Amino acid sequence: MSQTYEKLMKSYEYCKSKINIRPKVALVLGSGLGDFAKQVESVTEIPYSEIEGFPVSTVAGHDGRFIFGYIGEVPVVLMKGRVHYYEGYSMQDVVLPIRLMKLLGAEILFLTNASGGVNKAFSAGDFMLITDQISSFVPSPLIGANLEKLGPRFPDMSEIYNQDLQEIIRETAKEENIPLQEGIYLQFTGPNYESPAEVRLAGMLGADAVGMSTTCEAIAANHMGMKICGISCITNMACGISENPLNHEEVQETANLKAPLFQKLVKQSIIKMG
Ligand code: HPA
After folding, report:
1. Are 230 and 214 spatial neighbours (Cβ–Cβ below 8 Å)?
2. Which domains does the chain have, with CATH numbers?
3. 135, 213, 222, 269: which one is catalytic?
4. 82 vs 209, residue with greater confidence
5. Which of 115, 137, 186, 256, when mutated, tests ligand 1's pocket best, judged by the most ligand atoms within 8 Å of its CB?
6. What is the pTM of this model?
7. Distances (CA, A) of 50 to 18, 45, 90, 177, 241
8. pLDDT for 16
């Protein structure tokens, strides 16, 4: 048995023994969205640090945990905090939590993140429905012996972001009067922000937003046959599109400012997905 699979099964058995709920939707919370946990009627919480061998965030003060509970009537599992490739973990470790949530029952994966806007029609503070992705600048989490129990060697990627789920998010945004952009998300490794030339490159390749997460998680989820959707909070215009130098505090500030509206969109969409 491969090390990756062994670690996954160990984590699965630990979590399974702790919960008596079968989540339908798995939600990954990006920067500034951590607060969303308040929207969930929590049943069980499992700090990542309790799970042997589980990747934990190396960023100080990021206490990552799974929160199992209900949003409306919908059983959910939330990831409060995710680990990033730039923290030094292997891609297999980065996507372990996604695989685990699928094994625990989640059929739908709802990904959220903060990103830099590449599309000049966007503004800082916009929300973008992710319609497709470019993952070519980070290693695939599927590299290595294929885990046949999880999915096929050469998975199709023609509809990573599920059309029906996209439509639910569009409808919800309309009903709640929340403006919603749409576009393609490109993942770079980070942790440095992009140079202006890299942002121009991303734009030439057809990307509308750039960030440091999400596409690898979507690949692992797609491999296992999950239905995936995602929304990005454009916290800033990417380097070179905006005149100003970027800093993490500004990104956090915009994410926090937009959090209430973002949470409303995510929550109401999930209720419809149940
Ligand atoms: N680039 C990459 N990741 C990001 C950005 C950005 O401009 N903003 C928030 N996350």
Report:
1. yes
2. 3-273 (3.40.50.1580)
3. 213
4. 209
5. 115
6. 0.97
7. 11, 10, 20, 41, 42
8. 97
